Amino acid sequence: MTVSAGGRGGGPAGTNETLSVDERRRLVSRNTVLLATAQGLATMTFPVLLIVGSVAAVDISGRDSAVGVINGSYFIAAAAGAVLFGRWMDRIGRRPELAASYLLLATAGGVCAFAVAQGWFLLLLAGTVLFGFAFGGSNLARGAVADMYEPSQRGRAVGIVLAVGTIGAVGSPFLIAFLRGWAGREAIDADVLPWIVVPITAIAAFACALSLRPDPRDLAVRVEVASDTGARTPRQLLRIGQFRTAVIAAAVGQMAMVAVMGVTPVALHHHDTSSTVVSTVISLHIAGMWVFSPVI
Fold first, then answer.
1. For 182, what's the count of Cα atoms within 13 Å in the CB-facing half-sphere?
2. What is the mean pLDDT of each run of 10 residues along the chain (296 residues)?
């Protein structure tokens, strides 16, 4: 396997070749900080849907099963968003794709807030689908940061982005609890006010994406594998036993995570638990999901 620096299709030809080692290192470090910051801001949005959206869905519909519909729709949309945004990212670059996903995330937050305020479950469901689709695209910041590093350093680079994402996701529930408490004291709808977190943080992430210079794809490290097999298709990968095992393990783990994550806020809500307690439980859950990423 050989590793070389060079821009990929769609970006300025030879971007890496025109930079000195020190200049390239500076640009990679700057883009890494921006991508990590954007990821941290974007992950602050998800707990709003998890804590406020799940409970609102049950209250509006009058059925506990609504939380399953909300969570299921969200994750299906997130999977679709990752695939479609990923293909778009390969064609036009990392910066435009990430910027678009953050703008869509901000829009989704507004739609969900309006739906909760009006008590419209179907609109909340539509906003959830938009939310998931956008969040699936925003998670591709992990791939964008990996592009800029050699294979031996990519895990560490992704771990840094996930670590900052953990800070945002773990801190967000406490911000939600504060906003709900303040809304209650000010006679403001406590199920609507926390949604302001979504557009504010998404727009800040959008600003980070626009500041990426050059596009991470143009700082990419190209890996050439000494093999005549070429890149494997998804179907070919699924023929490999270890790959199938990894997919099944990831699916089962995700299923367990979603089950706990979706049911917990509603169960605590039924027991009239305070917003602070709900936020603490969800923060601990999210910390367990991501806090060890840099180590791994």
1. 9
2. 48 62 92 96 93 93 92 93 93 95 97 96 97 95 93 90 89 92 90 96 97 93 62 85 93 85 86 87 85 76
8: nearest Cα among 89, 84, 127, 119: 89
Taking the whole predicted model, whether its pTM rises above 0.90 is answered as no
